[in-house]
């Protein structure tokens, strides 16, 4: 039963979390004055436009994956100082907020007395807990200030142009990408991200329980 629910949740995430993440980038860029996502057909919640087949399959299998990168042109941003930071942060923020929403729905279900202790309640809470865990994990992962993730672009927007760190990263970009993928698949990077995610989950669970006196 748990495996079936986990697979359903993973499929839901592929068609919900990843598209919302990429749409958030597109929407933020559009609000910043860049029409590149709109002209590229990415200012939409249609999941088929945003899903990368390999990244989507990995989400379903191991809980880590990616969508098609949303094309943006930072030179079009109205706010040249903070535009890239805002657009880059929009994706992970959507993951975290969606994870919070899933945890809140789980809390509501746990407080429905008429289905208390039933298979329906167990199935629904397992579904939303799994969905929240993966969504928040992806949000935290993408906030890491290292290449390949949105957190690096946030850091780029804060660092002075032409900084040594930025130049070094671009010189060694391919090797860094390979190293990050190895660290993720071996669990070396996944473990600390999971620990940070668990902290966020506990905080969001606490917030979700406040309306119910928990």
Please characterize this protein's 3D structure:
It is a single chain. With 214 residues, the chain is an all-alpha fold. The protein is built from 10 helices and no strands. Helix 1 crosses helix 6 and helix 5 crosses helix 7. It starts with a helix and ends in a 5-residue tail after the last helix.
The ordered string of helix (H) and strand (E) elements is HHHHHHHHHH
What's the total number of strands? 0
Percent range of helical residues? over 70%
Biggest sheet overview: none
- The low-confidence parts are none
Q: From the helix content, strand content and strand pairing, which structural class follows?
A: mainly alpha
Mean pLDDT, all residues: 87
The first-to-last residue Cα distance is 29 Å
Q: Give the number of helices.
A: 10
What would you say about this model in short?
With 214 residues, the protein is an all-alpha fold. It has helices at residues 2-31, 36-39, 47-50, 53-62, 83-110, 119-142, 150-158, 164-171, 173-185, 190-209.
